Prior knowledge:
Oligomer: heterodimer
Shape of chain B: flat
Order of helices and strands of chain B: HHHH
Strand content of chain A: under 5%
Distance between the termini of chain B: 35 Å
Helix content of chain A: over 70%
Structural class of chain A: mainly alpha
Number of strands of chain A: 0
Helix content of chain B: over 70%
Number of helices of chain A: 12
Strand content of chain B: under 5%
Largest interface: A-B, 108 and 81 residues
Radius of gyration of chain B: 19 Å
Number of strands of chain B: 0
Amino acid sequence: MSAPAPERTFETATSAFLFGARTAATSVFMFVITVTYIGFGALCHDYGLPVVWAMFSTVLIWAGPAQVILVTALGSGSALIEGALAVGLSSVRLLPMVVALLPLVKRERSRAWQLLVPVHFMAVSVWVEAMRLAPGVPREHRIPFCNGIGTMLLATAVMATAAGYYLSAALPVLFGAAAMFITPLSFLVSTARNSRLLVEKVAFGLGLIIAPLLAYEKIQLDLLWTGVVGGSLAYGVSRMRKAAT
Amino acid sequence: MSQLLLDPYVALVLVGFLPSEIWRWIGIAVGRGLDEKSEFIVWVRAVAISLVAGVVTRIVLFPPGALASVPLSVRIAALGCGFLAFYFARRSPFAGVLVGEAVLVAGALAFGG
């Protein structure tokens, strides 16, 4: 993803924020997030959790797979530490995502605490749109732009959580399965769309193959290893390719 | 091991929020001082992409809850059809998501779900 010269300029941070919100509103993730969180709200209803709890979990966790794991852990009464570990392992992806995005959006004088809120918005949906479009926004307005994307999608998710909670009984039987399936499906196509360089394409393909092999072999920390092994191999391949040409 | 008899809101923070948010905080510590053009960032981006791709096949092959009731062959076919639709519709993520979901639902109805 080579950064093109900034194409857009904004008068104020607010207009950059609004542009981010509009970008999110017209992206595929508006639909994806709505379906995902209607499914999540209904799941919380089925497990007998309060609606306010369901909405808070969306605001605080903001990572679909982790939220599903938390609810099922609470429901099954599994051990506290096991639940926390499972949530933590499923959210490992957030670390390289944040590290890859920050140098693209931060400013010289950004302090750590000023990054807490923008970084909280980071989920695959926001990340994909931010990585794709932030290079076209002037650096001083990239953080408000990302906050606009995040605010729009997170607000939508919270409303969808509440809607799904109350619609639970009216939803078709298959809705729950379709809502859980939209997460991997949207990750697949949006990440494929963003993978333009050789290193990105190889990393993408290797990740698809390595993760199920490791999970099948019941390797501990399978997702973490998938990222490190797939990413490093892809990086190595692209370095060798560069050296050869 | 004690069961999750905590107040659900305390459990939300301890079992849900903190174990997930910690990665974002570590990300700030690691990423804040890095240069956009460094080789390290190229590697980290590759790691992130591999990890997200890994989440895809992991959920589809080892699904949680309701999705497990849809046969494996239907899940794989739906993912494949979604990807093909995306690819042939000039890399439109909308086409991929809609076709993939349609195949999943149709397959689940036809082959039990």
